[in-house]
Design a protein that fits this description.
The complex is a heterodimer of chains A (374) and B (745). With 374 residues, chain A is an alpha+beta fold. Chain A is built from six helices and 18 strands. In chain A, helix 4 runs antiparallel to helix 5 (93-115) and helix 5 runs antiparallel to helix 6. In chain B, the strands form five sheets. In chain B, strands 9-10-11 form a three-stranded antiparallel sheet. In chain B, strands 1-2 form a two-stranded antiparallel ribbon. In chain B, helix 23 crosses helix 24 (558-591) and helix 24 (558-591) runs parallel beside helix 28. The chains are: A alpha+beta (374), B mainly alpha (745).
Chain lengths: 374, 745
């Protein structure tokens, strides 16, 4: 039996389970401590959403499996265990349900990782938006205006292609773009609105604070024709064949099928202190002709058409106006954790209750036997 | 030599007097009344008792003040600070942890972690302010230790200043004008001036009203426009010339009479005479007119009346000047007090307002607004208290305190905010967690005695009673906290320690109940042990700020606090209890014979397994609920935040142990050592992540924690090591065969 299913039984072994769980603990500790030095975003990327990461013992580097590998391993382990070990018996009912839940939870996690969309929306009172912007990812938008000076066409280059040395040919543009240098964090050197250079800076642990910039070369027939610098939210203009092109490096935009307008932002503190007590954004949800008022506040998000809006934070700008920051999330697998954790819990309760009942019955019997014999 | 002796004797005598005073005060004053006055502080309404405790600990790191005249309780300290600042300024009150702070201020230091007086820092407040402003500019995470302590010290000194000046208006002031001092007494307070002024003005206002009513309509309107009717003007002029001849009056108050006009009007139809008094400003003619009715003018000497009246009026003018000067002086001082709103004990009468008022604000607003009736009386009480204190009139103090408390409580009750004050007073008076700690220690000792085999039954029973008693007191304390805060008892680190301890003891009763007949006292001993350790740890946190304080908005959800935090705490508790049982498992190997060990190991192994299953369920549930809360609030179920990771670690470790057990890689010994390792995991998840100071859950941080955690982890690893050695060296336990039982017989 064992020889026949050699690989499968290895995959299903308790030994592998224990090892993977223990190693997941190691990674968790590692990735948690690393947050102090690298910040949450980078640590998460390096240790949890990676297949391998490089650790150093002294000067010697070696690769260790990352969170993806370990959780993938646990998934395989679980599937193999279903095949090899699980039996349809009453006393395994709880285990079935519980491990089914874990199966679902791991799947849901992968699904969320692949398909969810997280961003935020920064609104000042009276402002309206129909897009949320990513926390970390940038995009380069090239916008052409026609004679009436109304911006008409937008070409967008996403974060995955924003690397030093990347060459881009877009059919919508009459020139090519080469990204000579890409800086994840830098400061612009500028004369008025025109950027003349970029000073690179070390990465901040709080990844949202990094402001990206890039040195671009515009190519004509594959030869560099013009050089310009772009920096976060500072539009640069280039005239080419009588048309003006706007180059804008901005956080990646996610378009929403509706519009939100901030009517009022309310914040309250505990009396006489700076301890926040309540934040609330009163917004207007506009979709075509339909308009309705919504309140978004702590623990009471707005859910609409698969998007969820949370009261995330607020700040005061240099002009003293209050801004609200709403977190905008779209996660098709949002319900999975609820279902899977319920299943896991149910399974554990069934299983452990069965065991407890059996144990109590047995001990009661033994105690009776002891009493009888003595 | 003799001179020195005199000085010494004098100092001794003086301190003797002071000592006697304060000791007498401590004895005589009814502190209960003072304690139960409510105050708004730190965003909530609390009794003065709590307020005093928090501040005293914040300043000095101690829960009572040690002075040359003996120990002073927080509430007594607060009373002295308010009513006798001079004395308290000389008390060594402010803790300076780091000598570098004093070096930066160019002051000498005695030794580290010593306390210094306010007077010591007073000349350096300017330097300190500069340093504090500098430190404030640095981002809070990047501040050095010294910068943090400078900010703390500065904040503490400002708070103290806010207190010592809180009642300045009720303290005697040296009068500027002799006339005033002669007439009203030397040591009037600002409040006295205000009251006198009010009274005197009242008299004159009445005159004015009377006078105005006798004027014709046209004349009245002219007066209101600020013009002097011709009729009046001539009579005023005449009065002025009369006055200048009037040596008696002029002699009295020459300075005041410079711009003075007075006249007598006689209304024959009503047979009434009126005295009109005017004061003309330098540039524009501004007229104050007062009527003085003479009912029977023929029987009075008008000149005498005029003199009397003018004297009163000049006193009023002087009084007003005096009040303005003194007000300026006190207000100028208050201007420099940055935290003057610290003593916010006056609830606003307007129920829609949330911010309470402090005495000075009330005093100031009294001039402008009409809440005089309510607040005026209260301010008077403070002035009376101050007077009574100065005269060492203890009965007077008690009377005034009683009245003050009664009227303040009435105001607070009208707002519906007094309900929880008596509970909080009771909470601090009864010190339930101290008694619970004592009970747990006693129970542990008794349990240990029963393990040693001396009168096993007897000690088992009384240790059970002690544990149950301590648990009841513990429950009472947690219940009080729930009632006071209106929240599940898990919103701060301190509370979570109390709660985890409580759950540990509660579950130890369950374990004991299940295994009582087969293997008693293990669960009991584990519960008592964990209970005493956790309650001991909790004491360290009891005084860190307001342990009943308000919550930030993110945590403000009773539903999630009650579900997520409670279950995760139960998970911690179960792990800790399992860890305690693991310790007992290792220890009992040393004392038991191989035959007895067989049964003991089997039973304790079952106990451990059950507890770990329980721990797995609850730590999983807690972790998942945390994820769901995060999903509800931030839109993501899992974000690898340190606290989430900590919770995950516990789940992973328990799951790992259970699977290793299934695989047969661990059995009784392995389970025991694994449970002990679980203690380290819990410590890391519960406390260790706070060391990182990142993430969303950083609700508690204590310096020196890192070292303590390392020591704890070291001890636990040591236990595991000892366990390993024992497993290797000790003879294997033998299954007691029926044969051996028969041999025994």
């Amino acid at each position: 039996m064992k020889k026949k299913k050699g690989i499968l039984s290895f995959l299903a072994s308790f030994w592998l389970t224990s090892l993977l769980l223990a190693f997941l603990m190691v990674i968790t500790v590692w990735g948690t401590v690393a947050q102090k030095y690298q910040g949450l975003y980078l640590a998460q990327k390096t240790y949890f959403s990676s297949f391998f990461f490089v650790a150093h013992i002294g000067p010697v580097p070696f690769a260790l499996p990352g969170g993806m590998t370990v959780m993938g391993g646990l998934f395989l382990n679980l599937v193999a265990a279903f095949v090899v070990r699980f039996r349809f018996r009453w006393n395994q009912l709880g285990l079935w349900i519980c491990h089914g839940g874990i199966f679902l939870m791991l799947l849901g996690g992968a699904f969320t990782y692949l398909f969810s969309q997280e961003g935020n929306m920064d609104l000042v009172e009276g402002e309206q938006k129909s897009a949320s912007s990513s926390y970390h990812d940038y995009e380069l938008a090239v916008i052409r205006d026609d004679e009436e000076r109304e911006y008409e066409r937008i070409s967008v280059i996403s974060q995955s292609r924003l690397h030093s040395g990347e060459k881009l040919e877009l059919s919508s543009l009459p020139f090519g773009i080469r990204i000579a240098r890409y800086y994840p964090n830098c400061l612009p050197v500028n004369k008025g609105q025109i950027i003349t250079g970029l000073k690179p800076r070390p990465l901040e642990p709080q990844y949202e604070r990094n402001l990206a910039g890039a040195e671009l070369e515009l190519l004509l027939e594959d030869k560099p024709a013009y050089r310009l610098y772009v920096f976060y939210n500072m539009p640069q203009f280039v005239k080419f064949r009588g048309k003006t092109y706007q180059f804008l490096l901005r956080h990646q935009q996610f378009h929403l099928p509706f519009t939100l307008r901030l009517k009022k932002f309310i914040k309250k503190e505990h009396p006489g202190t700076n301890v926040p007590r309540h934040f609330e954004s009163k917004v207007m949800l506009i979709e075509g002709d339909k308009v309705r008022d919504v309140r978004i506040y702590m623990n009471h998000p707005l859910r609409y058409k698969g998007y969820t809006f949370f009261q995330s934070s607020w700040y005061q700008d240099s002009q003293g106006r209050l801004h609200t920051v709403l977190a905008v999330v779209r996660n098709p697998a949002a319900a999975v954790p609820y279902i899977s954790s319920l299943l896991i819990l149910l399974g554990m309760l069934i299983h452990f209750t069965q065991k407890l009942v059996r144990f109590l019955a047995r001990t009661a019997k033994q105690d009776r036997v002891v009493e009888l014999t003595s | 030599m003799r001179r020195w002796l005199m000085v010494v004797l004098w100092v001794l005598g003086l301190s003797g007097v002071l000592w006697a005073d304060i000791a007498k005060m401590q004895e005589e004053v009814n502190w209960r009344d003072f304690q139960s006055i409510a105050i708004q502080h730190g965003g909530r309404i609390k009794p003065l008792d709590t307020f005093a405790r928090i501040l005293l600990y914040q300043f000095s790191g101690r829960s009572s003040l040690k002075t040359s005249v003996g120990k002073i309780s927080p509430i007594q300290w607060l009373f002295l600070t308010l009513f006798d600042p001079e004395v308290v300024e000389g008390y060594s009150l402010f803790l300076v942890e780091n000598p570098e702070v004093l070096e930066a201020l160019d002051l000498d230091y005695k030794r580290s972690r010593d306390r210094y007086t306010y007077r010591y820092f007073k000349p350096k407040m300017g330097v300190l302010r500069r340093l504090a402003v500098e430190a404030q500019r640095v981002e809070s995470k990047k501040r050095t230790l010294v910068q943090k302590q400078i900010l703390n010290l500065y904040h503490n000194l400002l708070t103290f200043e806010g207190l010592i000046h809180a009642l300045d208006f009720a303290r005697p002031l040296q009068a500027h004008f002799d006339v005033i001092a002669k007439r009203f007494g030397k040591d009037l307070t600002l409040l006295d001036y205000q009251r006198l002024l009010k009274r005197q003005f009242g008299v004159f206002e009445r005159f004015q009203r009377n006078f105005i009513t006798t004027l014709g309509v046209g004349e009245r309107e002219a007066l209101q426009r600020g013009q002097i009717p011709a009729k009046l003007r001539s009579s005023l002029k005449k009065a002025k010339s009369d006055l200048s001849k009037e040596s008696y009056v002029v002699h009295l108050e020459r300075s005041v009479l410079k711009n003075f006009y007075a006249s007598l009007l006689y209304d024959p139809s009503k047979k009434r005479g009126y005295l009109i008094l005017g004061m003309l400003g330098q540039k524009e003619e501004k007229l104050y007119v007062y009527g003085y009715p003479f009912r029977r003018p023929e029987r009075l000497d008008p000149r005498w009346e005029l003199g009397e009246f003018l004297r009163d009026y000049s006193v009023l003018v002087l009084l007003e000047q005096e009040f303005r000067l003194q007000f300026k002086r006190v207000a100028g001082r208050m201007e420099g007090v940055m935290y003057r709103s610290i003593f916010a004990i006056f609830p606003p009468l307007d129920k829609s307002k949330e911010l309470w008022l402090y005495p000075w604000a009330v005093f100031e607003s009294k001039l402008a607004h009409g809440d005089f009736k309510v607040y005026g009386g209260l301010l008077e009480r403070f002035a009376n208290l101050q007077k009574a204190y100065n005269q060492e009139d203890w009965a007077g103090i008690n009377r005034e305190l009683r009245e003050l408390k009664a009227s303040l409580v009435e105001l607070v009750e009208a707002r519906g905010e007094y309900k929880k004050i008596p509970l909080e007073l009771r909470y601090f008076r009864h010190q339930p967690f101290f008694w619970a700690l004592l009970g747990y220690i006693v129970a542990s000792l008794l349990c240990a005695l029963s393990w040693l085999g001396i009168k096993r039954r007897f000690f088992y029973r009384i240790s059970l009673v002690a544990l149950a008693g301590a648990f009841a007191i513990h429950t009472y304390g947690i219940g009080l906290r729930i009632m006071i805060k209106g929240r599940p008892p898990v919103s701060t680190l301190y509370e979570s320690v109390l709660f985890v301890g409580w759950v540990c003891v509660a579950s130890s009763f369950v374990v004991e109940g299940i295994f009582r007949r087969r293997f008693p006292t293990i669960g009991l001993g584990g519960g008592a042990l964990v209970g005493s350790i956790l309650m001991f740890v909790a004491r360290r946190f009891a005084n860190d700020g307001d342990n009943l304080g308000v919550l930030v908005a993110v945590l403000d959800s009773n539903f999630w606090l009650a579900t997520h935090v409670t279950t995760i705490s139960i998970g911690y508790s179960a792990c800790l209890l399992a860890g305690a049982i693991g310790h007992i498992f290792i220890l009992m190997q040393l004392f038991l014979s191989p035959q007895k060990r067989y049964v003991a190991n089997r039973e304790v192994y079952r106990m451990l397994y059950g507890t770990i299953c329980f721990a797995t369920v609850f730590s999983f549930l807690g972790t998942v609920l945390g994820g769901l809360w995060a999903d509800q609030s931030w839109g993501r179920f899992w974000g690898w935040d340190p606290k989430e990771n900590g919770a995950l670690l516990i789940v992973l470790w328990n799951a790992c142990l259970l699977h290793m057990r299934l695989g047969g890689y661990v059995r009784d010994w392995g389970m025991a050592m694994g449970a002990i390792f679980g203690n380290i995991v819990v410590a890391a998840a519960w406390w260790g992540v706070n060391l990182l100071q990142v993430g969303l859950h950083s609700y508690g941080f204590t310096s020196g924690l890192g070292l303590k955690l390392m020591i704890f982890a070291g001890i636990e690893l040591g236990f595991i090591g000892v366990g390993g050695i024992l497993y290797w060296r000790l003879p294997k336990p033998q299954k007691p065969s029926p044969l051996s039982v028969r041999e025994g017989e």
